[in-house]
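TL;DR need structure tokens for one chain.
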Amino acid sequence: MKAAILREMGMSRPYANSKPLLVEDVSLDPPGPGELLVKIKATGLCHSDLSVINGDRPRPMPMVLGHEAAGEVQECGAFVTDLKPGDQVVLTFVPSCGSCIPCMEGRPALCEPGARANVAGTLLSGARRLRLQEAPVYHHIGVSGYAEYAVVSRRSAIKVDSSLPAHEAALFGCAILTGVGAVVNTGKVPAGCSVAVVGLGGVGLSALLAVVLTGAAEIIAIDTNPGKLEAASRLGATKTVKVGPEAVKEVRDLTGGGVDFAFEMASSVPALQLAFEVTKRGGTTITASLPHPDHRLSIPAVQLAAEERTLKGSYLGSCVPARDIPRYIRLYQRGKLPVDKLLSEIVSLEELNEAFDRLADGKSIRQVMKIA
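>> reply
TL;DR here they are.
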């Protein structure tokens, strides 16, 4: 099959010239016990993929990237009895074992064996099914969706409505799951409150759609990019604020002291700092972004107690994918979560480098690679 392989992180921009992703012929072994062979139909371009390309998220090389994918089951490995060839599935980037403590507590996004496998670049079983000229190739967080096919753990796949177009279904594997989940699961945002969303990429605008759905009275969208601020206004933001020296004061003036909830989705420590500073006394700041592991946040420790502030992380939107992906799809199909408005461009496997330049430059919201 054909797949886009990343051999080296941190290559220079523009990627259209340096070409960190090379489309090559790759061998794919059959699915093992508890695994699936999936024909990839569509895979989103996410900042988490860009963070591996630019070196912010170190991973073993070489690797087939892509983690926000949808496709059709072709073959089921031994012991997989609840899916069959022809089923459409959305692939999630944390395979949950179901038996570790976080999984048993209903927090599959924090699955411990799943996290170890993702860091190691293997499937949940510990196996690698990808090969380039007989040399093993690493999997990207259990999916490796920039390819014509993928072998994945059954624990990475959620069956969805087969009538949903694959290029829309793919978004529910990361952008929607992470953004919407951060609002409804991590934040449990109530109706009538004030909310700021900092960082208006695919995940940030997904969060904004969820904030609109909750019935928040005041929704402030914050970004450096005027085009994304305009998109946020179209999607339901009541106010927009461009990042700058007066941004914190502007938000505090608009809200009488800060917002009840601030969501940071920019994978940037300065963005998280800004989100914390626009949150009011007694409010909650939530981050779902993944900056470089060496980056540190500095806040006055006294604020946490003296102002009863809450600072929380949200991974995979604190979701239970088997529960939440079908829920969010139903909301979309009923017109309450218009995720199709997030789609910027459809690209091919061969156009990924140029597409990642657009993502890095903030010129797109959500691009999707589609395979016929």
